[in-house]
Amino acid sequence: NILGDIQRIQSNKKGNTEGKRNKETRHESPQRRKTSYQEILQRLDTKEKQHECSQCYKTFARRSDLVIHQIIHTGENPHQCGTCGKAFSKVCHLKTHQKIHTGEKLYKCTTCGKVFKQLSNLKGHQMIHTGEKPHQCSTCRKAFRHMSALKVHQRIHTGEKPHQCSTCGKAFRQITLLKTHQRIHTGENPHQCSTCGKALSCMSALKRHQMIHTGEKPHQCTTCGKAFRQITLLKTHQRIHTGENPHQCSTCGKAFSCMSALKTHQMIHTGEKPHQCSTCGKAFSHMYHLKTHQMVHTGEKPHQCSTCGKAYSHMCHLKTHQMIHTGEKPHQCSTCGKAFSRMYHLKKHQMIHTGENPHQCSTCGKALSCMSSLKTHQMIHTGEKPHQCSTCGKAFTKMFQLKLHQMIHTGEMPHQCSTCGKAFNQLCHLKKHQKVHTGGKPYRCTTCGKYFRSSSDLNKHQITHTREKPHQCSQCGKAFSHMSVLKRHQRIHTGEKPHQCCQCGKAFRQLSTLKAHQKIHTGEKPHQCSTCGKAFRQLSTLKKHQKIHTGEKPHQCSTCGKAFRQLSTLKKHQKIHTGEKPHQCSTCGKAFGQLSTLKTHQRIHTGEKPYQCSTCGKAFNRISNLYVHLKIHSG
């Protein structure tokens, strides 16, 4: 066995040493000694290696080196510590370890005072102070302090991974990585945090974890001052400033700042998703994404905001949330100066300037700036709506849409205006509202010069100039300028009225209509005319009313030139010219230009008379008929 081989080699070495001493007493000719030395040099120059490893085919000049090497594959550790029982593959490693028990520390650094057990460790440490990196890679010229680090690095270029897992076959460049990996199979987490009790598979992971408790961030960026817990994170961060992306995808040529990002990207091409959820079977390309997903099943949210108490499943989500309270936006666009709270949002924004849309839909050919947008877009073709409301059963393509929808049922409005106290279910709606108080309208229409509070309002307005209506109803063929308007319209065909009044039970197609209706119960009329003092429930009604005082009629008929205060009135009028009567009575077949006229007509068939006289109780099917009747009582 290998242990026996090691003992024999050590015995032979001892015998060779004694033989060498005896040989020194003999007289050899200088010529023979010279020839022997030249032969040794020649063998070193030609790198003669006679002993080959049967596992990985690596060759060695000496059998002893081969035997020591083979321990990597067998995992054999023949040298055991008599104090704690820990085993090692080499005697030198055991001796170094034993100094932990004896407390022996002989070598002290004259610069910082740090003490080391071995001279080699001290020399390696001193290079931190001198900045010396004597070992250079011949392929990429990267320099290292230690030869061992260079050898490990060179495996990146050669692709060599000599350390293979006997359980799953996965191979690694370093033995330490293999040992850490093997703990996935064994479930071993020997390193426990003394603060919170969390157990981790390796010491380096424990040290990184403990920095969460201490708040220690020893690695600082010299450019922007940002600090990090790990040197690797600092190096990756510094590439933001240098623009360096050394890791390139061999399939599409896209370059990345770190190897992990490249590996994640490459799974797009391979379609590989090695991490599967044991609960629902869903697979992920990253272990991190699997762990995030599993919290959906467990409901675990360990990270809580100290300001508002909101809890999150991940620390990164909590940090992003806390920026709402602090107003911090550390990621700034170098082109336009706009700042963002997340790097992801900055990268997405920068594609506006570059015009880059790398992700193309295989069905319709539409190109999008990010993979998440492509996946959402593809649901239009597949009809997939994976996020379902547990209250009413309505399904959505995006999780955030479901969360917003659920606020209808809960009545939750977490975003409150500090000026007037009005609350909103979305932050974007609050920001838009706050411009009412500040008077800010930064978005200007280049066609007519009109200003708007938000870019979405400007986009809606600009369609009035282009008359573009890209969204068509599949039921009746009617086209709309916005998808949201089409969705509201489609409720006419489906009969869906998701917004119900909690006072009287009446249901509405639109939330805005429900809110306007609820003011009937409260009697609230917050919008007052500054000219005549008349108050209204809705701002839109006030604006229509104010046109009576100003005489403004901005909507003109292109056929006869007649002008109107409201666009809806113009549209009704235009049907006189076109003769269009899209609303047909299902009972008698009579057609009408307006839906309201059809509804009034249908009361003839149903016998419905909703307008009742409070004096005599007589009822009418039209409000105009009630007004005529009331004059009888008033005289």
Automatic annotation (TrEMBL):
<dbReference type="InterPro" id="IPR013087">
    <property type="entry name" value="Znf_C2H2_type"/>
</dbReference>
<feature type="compositionally biased region" description="Basic and acidic residues">
    <location>
        <begin position="15"/>
        <end position="31"/>
    </location>
</feature>
<feature type="domain" description="C2H2-type">
    <location>
        <begin position="499"/>
        <end position="526"/>
    </location>
</feature>
<feature type="domain" description="C2H2-type">
    <location>
        <begin position="527"/>
        <end position="554"/>
    </location>
</feature>
<feature type="domain" description="C2H2-type">
    <location>
        <begin position="611"/>
        <end position="635"/>
    </location>
</feature>
<feature type="domain" description="C2H2-type">
    <location>
        <begin position="387"/>
        <end position="414"/>
    </location>
</feature>
<keyword id="KW-0805">Transcription regulation</keyword>
<dbReference type="GO" id="GO:0031981">
    <property type="term" value="C:nuclear lumen"/>
</dbReference>
<keyword id="KW-0539">Nucleus</keyword>
<dbReference type="GO" id="GO:0010468">
    <property type="term" value="P:regulation of gene expression"/>
</dbReference>
<keyword id="KW-0677">Repeat</keyword>
<feature type="domain" description="C2H2-type">
    <location>
        <begin position="107"/>
        <end position="134"/>
    </location>
</feature>
<feature type="domain" description="C2H2-type">
    <location>
        <begin position="359"/>
        <end position="386"/>
    </location>
</feature>
<keyword id="KW-0804">Transcription</keyword>
<dbReference type="GO" id="GO:0022603">
    <property type="term" value="P:regulation of anatomical structure morphogenesis"/>
</dbReference>
<keyword id="KW-0832">Ubl conjugation</keyword>
<feature type="domain" description="C2H2-type">
    <location>
        <begin position="135"/>
        <end position="162"/>
    </location>
</feature>
<feature type="region of interest" description="Disordered">
    <location>
        <begin position="1"/>
        <end position="36"/>
    </location>
</feature>
<keyword id="KW-0479">Metal-binding</keyword>
<feature type="domain" description="C2H2-type">
    <location>
        <begin position="331"/>
        <end position="358"/>
    </location>
</feature>
<dbReference type="InterPro" id="IPR036236">
    <property type="entry name" value="Znf_C2H2_sf"/>
</dbReference>
<keyword id="KW-0238">DNA-binding</keyword>
<feature type="domain" description="C2H2-type">
    <location>
        <begin position="219"/>
        <end position="246"/>
    </location>
</feature>
<dbReference type="GO" id="GO:0008270">
    <property type="term" value="F:zinc ion binding"/>
</dbReference>
<feature type="domain" description="C2H2-type">
    <location>
        <begin position="443"/>
        <end position="470"/>
    </location>
</feature>
<dbReference type="Pfam" id="PF00096">
    <property type="entry name" value="zf-C2H2"/>
</dbReference>
<feature type="domain" description="C2H2-type">
    <location>
        <begin position="191"/>
        <end position="218"/>
    </location>
</feature>
<feature type="domain" description="C2H2-type">
    <location>
        <begin position="247"/>
        <end position="274"/>
    </location>
</feature>
<keyword id="KW-0862">Zinc</keyword>
<feature type="domain" description="C2H2-type">
    <location>
        <begin position="303"/>
        <end position="330"/>
    </location>
</feature>
<feature type="domain" description="C2H2-type">
    <location>
        <begin position="275"/>
        <end position="302"/>
    </location>
</feature>
<comment type="function">
    <text>May be involved in transcriptional regulation.</text>
</comment>
<dbReference type="InterPro" id="IPR050331">
    <property type="entry name" value="Zinc_finger"/>
</dbReference>
<feature type="domain" description="C2H2-type">
    <location>
        <begin position="471"/>
        <end position="498"/>
    </location>
</feature>
<feature type="domain" description="C2H2-type">
    <location>
        <begin position="555"/>
        <end position="582"/>
    </location>
</feature>
<feature type="domain" description="C2H2-type">
    <location>
        <begin position="163"/>
        <end position="190"/>
    </location>
</feature>
<keyword id="KW-0863">Zinc-finger</keyword>
<comment type="similarity">
    <text>Belongs to the krueppel C2H2-type zinc-finger protein family.</text>
</comment>
<protein>
    <submittedName>
        <fullName>Zinc finger protein 160-like</fullName>
    </submittedName>
</protein>
<feature type="domain" description="C2H2-type">
    <location>
        <begin position="415"/>
        <end position="442"/>
    </location>
</feature>
<feature type="domain" description="C2H2-type">
    <location>
        <begin position="583"/>
        <end position="610"/>
    </location>
</feature>
<feature type="domain" description="C2H2-type">
    <location>
        <begin position="79"/>
        <end position="106"/>
    </location>
</feature>
